[in-house]
């Protein structure tokens, strides 16, 4: 086997075999690495760590035996005599000590020769061979997936586990059909999104890799004049008769590199992993957007500096004047707002007014409710009015994504990149600009899910498309002169699919495009007792602290349920719901003793129920008969004043 696409060797940096006392490897990632391979040149620190180059002319050829193992071999790399250079990546930086290759840390190795490089992830237990011409390696998300970049092409490799299903054939089948192959193999999804199969599907082939089953989808994105890397080759690689975990490879390119992809697949080998994996995403720092006006900058810094908790309740959307039932919708909105802010509700005005909008509703465009936003929001953090948290979602069908939905299987994301919605987005931007007051722009919450129209399952298991559409809309806002949008990135607490490829950091568009971290964790409270707020948000704090610990955070939506009727008597758990709220405010009253509250500056209760047909699955709405819960909210907020 020879790689045909690439033939010119990259300039390689040699790694010394000798121990260098000034380059002692650390258990922590390098704080100030000097150079980072990136897909696009950028000064944005969120693009990932800049991997420092080790420069010793000795190379590691004299100690390859300390690094190489026979289980790493493929048809091209059969032993150390075929390796020209080696590089050892250990715990976030290139290491000079070959003994690091034997530890139980995060260990990866690169074995270079003239036209190919053998990459070994010792921690996860896999290896593959790649062409070297223009090759760059990005370890930023190493815990969740490894990225390999060439001019015009990108490969992402992840190891997936069949959580939470059993590790037998039935569990593997359930996992893959629910969270991977549901759309890759569904012809209606392919045609609805102007995609097309470009090669015959390779299914469960035992010929490409001895002892491994391989499934390959080759899909071309049509109408791709503005989507350069529109040829996708996607593979699941699994050892025969082993179902607990498998490799997922997603390769996208400007040209049809199907034969090259087959060569890469043929080189893929698995072995027993040894060690742990980590990601090396740099810590995100709060920063002003250079396009903000003074009022928006002032409000952002108020959030940064305050130790108080701004609070809001979402109950109904503000209607926009074009809606046919505008009067009745507005009346319902006003009545619910007055009830929730009244003496039997919070007994105070809300600091945050939450609103949701889709691109369209089953064929009819939605528009920013400018008139009513100016009346009922318009807050700037100082004028006594509520600040608008505006949740905008890239969906045309109310995020109706589910295994049972066989018809509404189109995502707007490909068409966004094609420019289909440009005029509509420009109107949105102009309306936001006309609103004038600082606005928390919460774009596409819960993207790391399997129920939204913008989740990665609908974009060929490629979260990059989400990132690209986020930046696409941001740039339209800048072009239209928007100076008052504070952009909020709000994943759901636990990624679903349970995967590495779909973890929330894979969707993060970068610090140049995000100013607030959104948090979302619900307690549905349909069981014997709720998980405490402290437990839920401590888990989120532990997950986010290393990357987002300095960013201001807002609980974009949350709630504890009172018990749904699909699992028993409706509102049967109202007492425990109220206690959950009391315990939450007790922690906020002693914020200094509860580090998990970190930089939480605001929270919005989602007062709307989940339904299955006509029955309530989760009672989240703060109905007037939930008097104990409303009292707990009212008293809790008063205690923080």
How would you characterize this protein structure?
It is built from 13 helices and 26 strands. With 641 residues, it is of the alpha/beta class. It folds into two domains: 21-270, Mog1/PsbP, alpha/beta/alpha sandwich (Protein Transport Mog1p, Chain A, 3-Layer(aba) Sandwich), CATH 3.40.1000.10; 294-639, Glycosidases (TIM Barrel, Alpha-Beta Barrel), CATH 3.20.20. Strands 6, 7, 8, 9, 10, 11, 12 and 13 form an eight-stranded antiparallel beta sheet that branches. Strands 15-24-23-22-21-20-19-16 form an eight-stranded parallel beta sheet. Strand 6 and strand 7 (146-150) form a beta hairpin. The longest helix is centred in the middle third of the chain and has 16 residues, at 326-341. The chain is globular. Residues 1-58 have low confidence and may be disordered.
Question: Which secondary structure elements does this structure contain, and how are they paired or packed?
Answer:
Elements: E1 85-90, E2 93-95, E3 107-112, E4 116-121, E5 126-131, E6 136-138, E7 146-150, E8 153-161, H1 169-179, H2 181-184, H3 187-192, E9 195-197, E10 202-205, E11 212-221, E12 231-239, E13 245-253, H4 258-267, E14 269-270, H5 294-305, E15 310-314, H6 326-341, E16 352-358, E17 360-361, E18 364-365, H7 370-376, E19 387-393, H8 413-418, H9 422-435, E20 439-443, H10 464-479, E21 485-489, E22 516-519, H11 533-548, E23 553-558, H12 574-588, E24 600-606, E25 610-612, E26 615-618, H13 627-639
Parallel strand pairs: 15-24, 16-19, 19-20, 20-21, 21-22, 22-23, 23-24
Antiparallel strand pairs: 1-2, 1-3, 3-4, 4-5, 5-14, 6-7, 7-8, 8-13, 9-11, 10-11, 11-12, 12-13, 17-18, 25-26
């Amino acid at each position: 086997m020879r790689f045909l696409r690439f033939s010119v060797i990259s300039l390689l940096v040699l790694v010394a075999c000798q121990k260098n006392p000034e380059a002692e490897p650390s258990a922590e990632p390098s704080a100030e690495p000097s150079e980072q391979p990136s897909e696009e040149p950028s000064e944005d620190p969120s693009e990932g760590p800049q991997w420092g180059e080790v420069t010793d002319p000795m190379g590691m050829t004299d100690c390859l035996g300390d690094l190489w193992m026979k289980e790493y071999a493929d048809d091209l790399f059969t032993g150390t005599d075929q390796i020209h250079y080696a590089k050892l990546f250990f715990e976030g930086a290139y290491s000079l000590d070959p003994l690091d290759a034997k530890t139980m840390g995060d260990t990866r190795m690169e074995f270079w020769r003239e036209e190919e490089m053998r990459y070994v992830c010792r921690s996860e237990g896999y290896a593959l061979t790649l062409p070297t011409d223009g090759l760059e390696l990005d370890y930023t998300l190493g815990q969740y997936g490894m990225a390999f970049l060439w001019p015009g092409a990108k490969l992402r490799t992840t190891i997936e586990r069949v959580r939470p299903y059993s590790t037998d054939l039935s569990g593997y089948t359930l996992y893959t059909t629910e969270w991977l192959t549901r759309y890759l193999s569904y012809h209606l999804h392919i045609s609805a999104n102007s995609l097309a199969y470009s090669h015959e599907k390779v299914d469960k082939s035992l010929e490409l890799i001895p002892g491994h089953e391989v499934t390959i989808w080759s899909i071309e994105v049509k109408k791709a004049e503005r989507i350069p890397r529109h040829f996708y080759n996607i593979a699941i690689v699994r050892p025969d008769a082993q179902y607990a975990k498998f490799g997922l490879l997603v390769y996208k390119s400007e040209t049809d590199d199907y034969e090259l992809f087959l060569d890469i697949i043929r080189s893929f080998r698995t072995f027993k992993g040894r060690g742990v994996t980590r990601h090396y995403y740099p810590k995100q720092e709060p920063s002003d957007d250079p396009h903000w006006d003074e009022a928006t900058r002032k409000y952002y810094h108020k959030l940064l500096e305050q130790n108080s908790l701004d609070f809001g309740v979402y109950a109904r959307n503000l209607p926009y004047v074009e809606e046919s039932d505008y009067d009745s919708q507005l009346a319902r909105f006003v009545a619910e707002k007055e009830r929730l802010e009244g003496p039997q509700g919070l007994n105070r005005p809300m600091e945050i007014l939450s609103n949701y909008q889709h691109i369209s509703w089953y064929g009819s465009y939605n528009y920013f409710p400018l008139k009513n936003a100016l009346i009922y929001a318009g807050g700037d953090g100082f004028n006594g009015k509520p600040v608008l948290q505006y949740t905008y979602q890239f969906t045309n069908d109310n995020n109706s994504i589910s295994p049972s939905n066989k018809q509404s299987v189109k995502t707007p994301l490909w068409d966004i990149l094609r420019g289909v919605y440009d005029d509509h987005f420009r109107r949105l931007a102009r309306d936001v600009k006309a609103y004038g007051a600082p606005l928390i722009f919460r774009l596409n919450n819960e993207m790391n899910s399997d129920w939204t129209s913008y989740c990665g399952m609908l974009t060929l298991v490629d979260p990059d498309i989400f990132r690209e559409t986020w930046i696409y809309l941001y740039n339209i806002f800048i072009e239209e002169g928007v100076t008052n949008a504070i952009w909020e990135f709000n994943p759901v607490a636990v990624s679903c699919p349970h995967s590495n490829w779909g973890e929330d950091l894979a969707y993060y568009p970068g610090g140049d495009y995000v100013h607030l971290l959104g948090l979302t964790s619900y307690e549905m409270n349909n069981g014997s007792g709720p998980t405490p707020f402290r437990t839920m948000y401590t888990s989120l704090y532990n997950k986010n602290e290393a990357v987002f610990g300095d960013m201001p955070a807002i609980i974009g939506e949350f709630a504890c349920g009172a018990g749904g009727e699909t699992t028993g008597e409706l509102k049967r758990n109202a007492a425990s719901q109220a206690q959950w709220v009391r315990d939450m405010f007790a922690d906020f009253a002693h914020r200094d003793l509860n580090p998990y509250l970190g930089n939480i500056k605001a929270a919005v209760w989602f007062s709307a129920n989940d339904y299955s047909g006509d029955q309530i699955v989760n009672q989240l709405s703060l109905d007037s008969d939930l008097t104990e819960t409303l009292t707990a909210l009212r008293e809790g907020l008063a205690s923080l004043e």
